[in-house]
Amino acid sequence: MSKPMSMTSSSSGLRFRRLPAKAHSIVFPMVLSLLMSGIVSTIATLRAVGFQPDVLLKVIQAWGLSYVVAFPAALAVMPLVRRIVAVIVETPKP
Predict the structure, then answer these.
(1) What does pTM read for this prediction?
(2) What DSSP element (H or E) covers 82?
(3) Do residues 58 and 41 touch, judged by C-beta distance below 8 A?
(4) Distance between CA atoms of 82 and 30, rounded to whole angstroms?
């Protein structure tokens, strides 16, 4: 068992333990869908309404709705994506 690595913020001295390796299958699609839904929601919202005084609120609302759909969708399609990638990418030889 590897010892947990502490991460530190120099300004606040905040430390936290890393999650165990088995959390990877949930955390990876969680973070990926968070970032991707944010990027796509921001672009789509800006295209639809332009730069208005309340555009940040509109982006956050769109992002929230998008993430609620994106995270479960990412979990659902991850096995299919792994299979597709395995067909396309050569597996390294030990």
Answers:
(1) 0.72
(2) helix 55-88
(3) no
(4) 16
SS3 category, 6: coil
The β-bridge partners of 15 are: 8
**Is residue 47 within 8 Å of 2, Cβ to Cβ?**
no
Q: How far apart are CA 4 and CA 2, in angstroms?
A: 6
**Rounded average pLDDT over 23-33:** 94
Q: Mapping DSSP to helix (H, G, I), strand (E, B) and coil, where does residue 8 land?
A: strand
For residues 5 and 18, the answer to whether their CB atoms sit within 8 Å is yes
Tell me the C-alpha distance between 62 and 60, whole Å: 5
Q: Comparing 89 with 12, which gets the higher pLDDT?
A: 89
DSSP symbols for 15-44: EEPPPPGGGHHHHHHHHHHHHHHHHHHHHH
